[in-house]
Amino acid sequence: MELHQLRYFCAVAETGSFSRAAEQSHVAQPSLSQQIIKLEEELGARLFDRLGRSVRLTELGKIFLPRARAVLRELEAAKGDVVERKDFVGGPVTVGVIPTVGPYFLPRVLTSFSRKFPQVRFTVVEEITPVLLDRLRAGAIDVAILALPIRGHEFETKPLLTERLFAALPKNHRLAKRTALSLRDLRSEPFLLLRDGHCFRDTAVAACDRARLHPQVIFESGQFSSLLSMVGAGMGVSIVPEMAVERKSQCRYVHIADEQATRTIGTVVLRGRSLTRAHQAFLSHLHRD
Questions:
Q1: What's 215's DSSP letter?
Q2: Stretch 198-217: mean pLDDT
Q3: What is the spatial distance between Cα 169 and Cα 254, in angstroms, rounded to a whole number?
Q4: Residue among 82, 94, 87 at smallest CA distance from 273
Q5: Phi and psi for 161 in degrees, rounded to 5?
Q6: Which of 27, 72, 89, 190 could make a disulfide contact with 236, Cβ separation 3.0–4.6 Å?
């Protein structure tokens, strides 16, 4: 049974004529008549009595008519729902973010986006890069915000921002009043760094390698807040991205004079995944913000 057969059947029932039904349905009358015959054959029952130039519903046709109309109404309602939802920006969005970005970048972005699209419901997952990439592959998160570049041809990436790196020093440090320094100036200092597994650990170590510095790491943590508290207490020095610089803290932040001492943050999605309007709106907001 085809939907167009139901439409033709309802048209004939409403007009009482094959010719007028064909004209209303924008189809040739022989084609419409043939489809009605096929429908009757499939049902195993006559739906119309042919009375010369007019037709009349049989008793079985009268029973079938409200059912056919109900099917067509449901179809139109379903189409309307799809069109409405297609243009609707709402529903769930799960965002994955690395710990060295989340607390500094996301609050402002989520707040401004939610003002524009209050029907979007966010879930935020904070994890290290390998875990977030696994969850992207599994479809457990929709969008990830990570340090670029990443490995994997199955992902689509787009840069958001590039930020400078800073040396975090105790307030009374001998270099605290400088506007810039080389990491080699800190070769005798104890270092406090993020633990292995955090991508910014690799960024910081790469900056040290370029300066031919082998840092003496005395403390490791998973959070910048812990590192900076220890730096402020005079335990040593650290390296942080620009977004983690706290103006009202017990530390002094000095720009690292190395053009490559930067970090690029970007969005990552699974290549080929179908994105909802909410996903697309959030990505657009991120890249416009």
A1: -
A2: 95
A3: 8
A4: 94
A5: -160, 155
A6: 190
Which class is 161-263 in CATH? Answer: alpha beta
Output the six-digit token pair for 36: 């009605």
Q: 């179908």: which residue's tokens?
A: 274
The Cα angle at residue 188 between residues 185 and 194, in degrees rounded to 5? 90
Output the CA–CA distances (angstroms, integers) from residue 20 to 33, 34, 65, 69, 217, in the order listed.
Answer: 12, 15, 18, 18, 88
CA-nearest of 264, 263, 261 to 167 is 261
State how beta strands 262-270 and 190-194 pair: unpaired
Is residue 206 left, alpha or beta, with left meaning phi > 0 and alpha meaning psi from -120 to 50? alpha
Strands 155-170 and 91-97: unpaired
CATH number of 3-86: 1.10.10.10
The letter for the amino acid at 101 is V
Give the strand pairing for 190-194 and 216-221. parallel
C-alpha 154/C-alpha 18 separation (Å) is 56
CATH class of 95-160+265-288: alpha beta
Gap between the Cα atoms of 68 and 70, Å rounded:
5
| Residue 79 pLDDT grade (very low, low, confident, very high; cuts 50, 70, 90) | confident
Sole residue written with tokens 């955090």: 198
Domain ranges of the chain: 3-86, 95-160+265-288, 161-263
Any idea how long the chain is?
A: 289
Dihedral (Cα; 194, 199, 205, 208), 10-degree rounding: -110
The identity of residue 64, as a single letter, is F
pTM above 0.90, yes or no: no
> In this model, does residue 21 exceed pLDDT 70?
yes
Identical fold, 3-86 and 95-160+265-288 = no
